[in-house]
Design a protein that fits this description.
Elements lengths: L1 H8 L3 H71 L5 H18 L3 E9 L13 E9 L2 E9 L9 H8 L3 E2 L3 E5 L2 E14 L2 E11 L4 H5 L8 E5 L5 E3 L10 H4 L1 H7 L1 H6 L4 E6 L5 E9 L8 E8 H52 L14 H135 L4 H114 L3
């Protein structure tokens, strides 16, 4: 696969183009031809289906008219019987037999013609006993014969078509059956019409028909060359088929798979018209048509079937397919010829353009293309010539630009050296300034710490002194309260002394009875004197304490404003130091940025030097490239 791909890649553009277009045309041709064939076959099959349906329907109507004609004869005989029903039995039977005799003579194709009437309606002496009398007319040696038979006497032993007609009260067609006459077995059916008087079936009239009479008619139905028709009864029995071995057999017996899939027997019994696809034993596709054959007055329609081979249906379209293929191939060859002619013309010009481009790629801009036409290829050639001229102009400008770049390189090289010197000086200055700022910052940090410590100490001293003043004032107040209490004690002591004096007087008056009380009064007076002395001493001490506390509070109170001013001064110093610290930090940051800028300038100076070298190389290379072109 890979080798084939490599071979394709090695092809010329002309061959690739022709191969690609040819493959595209063939693909489109195959797809279009396939679609045409499919559409032709579908259209042909659809039209053939309509034709076959119409032909089968037409032939079914012919068979239907023949059977309805025969049913009409049976109905006429029945009507004649009803006209004579009021005659005596013997006269009525005579007239009915004469009509039947004449009818059979007029239609020798009938196998027989008969009437079967209940004996209780044909023999006045019979009574209500079961039984019926049959009058059968048939041919024997080209002569019409009449045979009388009594049946079901004593009761029904076997149900026949007669009993079905009597029970339904409707005309009917019997399922195909085999009949023997003089050693010959032949398939027949019977058309029966009931005789109804006062809503009671008293008998029937029937016509026996040879189904072989329909053979030539059915056999002549050929919708297409190899197709054929067949005739089946209401229950699916083959009444005629070109394969005589299956006549008399059920459709479901011969074609069980199709009958199971498409429910053929059921649809025939319902009198449906339908088509279904199938395959024969030799795997040929066929279409099978069924059209009902409805006999007037009955509810058991038969069906005319037809089988059509699909190959025969589409055989007419094969010629058109072959003709279409020939025309398509001829058109393909014509298109291929036109394609080769124009591809040679187009790709010839492309080849010249390719050679022209190759010459340009080698640096020779002095060549030009020859313009041979005014179409797109001529326009392309003119464009290539304009491009060549434009290249010439570009190369000339390129050479001039190379000289300008060389001059610019020299100027940049000088500037680079100067800039490198300034960047080095800037970097050194920034480093010195950064070191100085760092020392100042450290000293300010120490000053901030000391100012904050002084602020804390002065604040704490101010608070403690303020508390001392408050406590001195509280102490003086407490001493004053004690002095007041001492005065109260002195007052109480005076009263106690007076009471003791009065008690001594009263004890003296009492004589010997008051001696004990006098002693107590004396002791109370002594105690009062001692208390008085103590109170005087306490009062003196309290007075000194009050004076000391008052002096202390005044002294501390005088110190508080000075201490408060010192505290505020310490706070302001700390704030100023903090502001200085922030300012120094900002200055240090700015110096750091300045140092960074200095580093960047140094780096830029180095890069500039490198770029100057690169520009030098580029200038030389550009000069070399411009020198390769021949203008």
């Amino acid at each position: 696969m890979e080798s084939k791909f490599l071979k394709f890649r090695n092809l010329s553009l002309r061959h690739k183009f022709i191969l690609a277009v040819l493959l595209t045309l063939i693909s489109v041709y195959i797809i279009s031809f396939g679609l045409i064939i499919m559409r032709q076959n579908t259209s042909t099959l659809k039209n053939a289906t309509k034709i076959a349906e119409f032909e089968v329907l037409h032939e079914a109507k012919r068979i239907e008219s023949l059977l309805n004609f025969d049913m009409g004869i049976a109905q006429g005989i029945t009507n004649a019987f009803l006209e004579f029903r009021n005659l005596p039995y013997s006269q009525r039977d005579t007239f009915l037999n004469k009509i039947m005799y004449n009818a059979l003579q007029a239609h020798p194709e009938y196998a027989g013609l008969y009437s079967s009437i209940e004996l209780k309606h044909s023999d006045p002496n019979w009574g209500d006993k079961p039984g019926r009398k049959s009058s059968v007319f048939y041919y024997d040696n080209n002569q019409v014969k009449l045979e009388f038979k009594k049946r079901d006497v004593g009761g029904i032993t076997k149900k026949t078509n007669y009993h079905k007609i009597i029970e339904s009260g409707k005309p009917g067609i019997a399922e195909p059956y085999m009949s023997s006459y003089k050693g010959i077995t032949i398939q027949e059916t019977t058309l029966s019409v009931p005789i109804v008087i006062d809503n009671e079936c008293i008998g029937l009239v029937g016509i026996d028909i040879y189904l072989k009479d329909f053979a030539n008619l059915v056999d002549s139905i050929r919708p297409f060359e190899s197709g054929y028709a067949f005739f089946v009864s209401n229950s699916g029995i083959y009444a005629y088929h070109n394969d005589t071995t299956i006549i008399g057999k059920y459709f479901s017996e011969i074609n069980p798979e199709e009958d199971s899939i498409h429910h053929i027997t059921e649809r025939i019994g319902r009198g449906e018209k339908f088509v279904f696809p199938a395959q024969t034993a030799d795997n040929r596709d066929v279409l099978v048509f069924f059209t009902p054959v409805k006999i007037e007055g009955t509810d058991t329609p038969w069906s005319l079937g037809a089988l059509v081979y699909v190959d025969d249906v589409i055989s007419d379209s094969k010629f058109m397919v072959r003709l279409t293929a020939i025309i398509g191939i001829a058109g393909l060859l014509l298109i291929l010829s036109i394609l080769i002619y124009y591809s040679n013309r187009i790709f010839g010009t492309f080849s010249q353009i390719s050679q022209f481009a190759e010459t340009l790629s080698n640096g020779d801009l002095s060549v030009s293309l020859e313009v041979k036409s005014d179409d797109e290829l001529g326009t392309m050639s003119k464009s290539m010539n304009r491009m060549s001229n434009h290249f010439k102009q570009i190369i000339t400008e390129l050479q001039e630009s190379a000289k300008s770049i060389e001059s610019l390189r020299n100027s940049l090289q000088f500037i680079s050296k100067e800039y490198d010197t300034l960047a080095s000086y800037q970097k050194n200055t920034a480093n010195d300034l950064s070191n100085s700022i760092r020392d100042i910052s450290q000293k300010i940090d120490t000053s901030v710490l000391n100012a904050n410590h002084s602020k804390e100490i002065s604040g704490k001293a101010f608070s403690e002194l303020k508390i001392g003043v408050e406590k001195a004032e509280l102490s003086a107040k407490t001493m004053q309260e004690i002095a007041t209490a001492t005065e109260i004690i002195s007052d109480i002591n005076q009263r106690t002394d007076l009471l003791a004096l009065n008690a001594g007087i009263e004890a003296a008056r009492a004589g010997k009875y008051g001696k004990s009380f006098a002693i107590v009064a004396s002791e109370i007076r002594k105690l009062s004197e001692q208390t008085k002395i103590s109170a005087v001493q306490i009062e003196g001490l309290l007075q000194q304490g009050v004076e000391i506390s008052t002096d202390t509070g005044k002294l501390v109170g005088d110190l508080l404003p000075e201490l408060d001013r010192a505290h505020h001064a310490s706070t302001e110093i700390a704030m100023l130091n903090t502001e200085q610290q922030v300012t120094i930090t900002q200055i240090a940051y700015t110096v750091t940025q300045l140092n960074t800028f200095a580093d960047e300038n140094a780096t830029f100076s180095q890069n500039l030097t490198q770029n100057v070298h690169l520009l030098n190389k580029l200038s030389k290379k550009l000069t070399g490239i411009a020198g390769k072109f021949k203008v």
